[in-house]
Amino acid sequence: MDLSRAGDLGAVAWFIPVFVGLFGLVVGSFLNVVAWRVPNGQSIVRPPSACPQCGHEIRKRDNIPVLSWLLLRGKCRDCDARISAKYPLVELVTAALFVLVWWKFGLGVEFIAYAYLAAIAVALTVIDLQFHRLPDVLVLPAYPVLGALFALECAITGEWWPLGQAAIGGAALFLLYFVAALVYPGGMGFGDVKLAGVLGMALGWLGWGPLVVGAFSAFIVGGVVGIAMIAAKRAGRKSGLPFGPFMFAGALVGVCFGTQLWNAYTGIWAT
Questions:
Q1: pLDDT in tens, 201-233
Q2: Which end of the chain has the least Cβ crowding within 10 Å, N or C?
Q3: What is the pLDDT of residues 37-67, one digit of tens each?
Q4: Alpha carbon distance 83, 180 (integer Å)
Q5: Are the C-beta atoms of 243 and 188 separated by less than 8 Å?
Q6: 76 contacts 56 by C-beta, under 8 angstroms
Q7: Of 62-66, 134-138, 234-238, which range is least confident?
Q8: Residue 57 and residue 77: Cα distance in Å, rounded?
């Protein structure tokens, strides 16, 4: 083997996840803007970001993801107002999810589709936790975006059945949550129903195992967290918890481990 070529390949292997992670940090920084401005009905383009306490525009050197927060020690340069650790956390989580998507799918059309889904998942999770809302402006465009990307991937591979699976998965999960919202309107909002269709598409594209595992994992995670919060006296039996974050958590389980868990489950019944 040519050692110099092996070294070049090793450098490329390290460069790709690093680049993807850095790209995720930049996207995460933008998602912080989205998560605050969209539910408040503000433009995500202008005006430039500013300190909510003193109103000073944030300098470009203070807008570097994670690093600027660390260098400023979590405080505004002009008025020393505290900057929430939520901002670098959102950036780091987005970067981690982008690397995870790359690890799962490599670079290609599927990476674009699931990185896009990861990005809106982060923004919607922050919004749902803070405002108990899943804005249509973020949820509804995901239908045509994912549909177009999946269709493009099918055109490249020549295999069209995964697109059918995505459509069936989206319809099935939408219907499941729609029925749940009718039966228990206090525990399920129509925003959750619309999001369910998006996640059903993403899970159905990967197969029936990821779809089933991802769908039910959301309720399992939600139940465990709810019980834990009640036990810790952080919530009561009638407390309303935003369900969007649990839906994303379930989808993450389905994407990463759905096939393995489904095969293990069906294998038990087959023996």
A1: 999 999 999 999 999 999 999 889 888 888 877
A2: C
A3: 999 888 888 888 877 777 778 888 878 899 9
A4: 39
A5: yes
A6: yes
A7: 234-238
A8: 10
DSSP 8-state code for residue 83: P
Q: pTM (2 decimals)? A: 0.90
Please say whether the dihedral angle defined by the alpha carbons of residues 84, 138, 238 and 232, taken in this order, is positive or negative: negative
Q: What counts of helices (H) and strands (E) characterise the chain?
A: 10, 0
Amino acid identity of 81?
Answer: A
Query: 137 with 38: CB under 8 angstroms?
Result: yes
Does residue 210 contact residue 203 with C-beta atoms inside 8 Å? Answer: yes
Contact 58, 50 (CB under 8 A): yes
What DSSP letter does each residue of 102-149 carry, written as one string? HHHH-SSHHHHHHHHHHHHHHHHHHHHHHHS---HHHHTTHHHHHHHH
Query: Tens of pLDDT along 86-98?
Result: 999 999 999 999 9
Name residues whose C-beta falls within 8 Å of residue 84's C-beta, 6 or more positions apart in sequence.
Answer: 74
Cα 32 to Cα 96: distance, rounded to the nearest angstrom: 16
Q: Which residues pair with 57 in a beta bridge?
A: 50
With b for 16 or more beta-carbon neighbours within 10 A and e for fewer, the 122-145 pattern comes to: bbbbbbbeeeebbbeebbeebeeb
Q: What pLDDT score does 228 carry?
A: 85
The phi and psi torsions of 150 (rounded to 5 degrees) equal: -65, -40
Three-class secondary structure of residue 75 per DSSP? strand
d(Cα 159, Cα 227) in Å, to the nearest integer?
Answer: 44
Q: How many other CB atoms are found less than 10 A from the CB of residue 200? A: 26
Residue 151 has pLDDT above 70, yes or no: yes
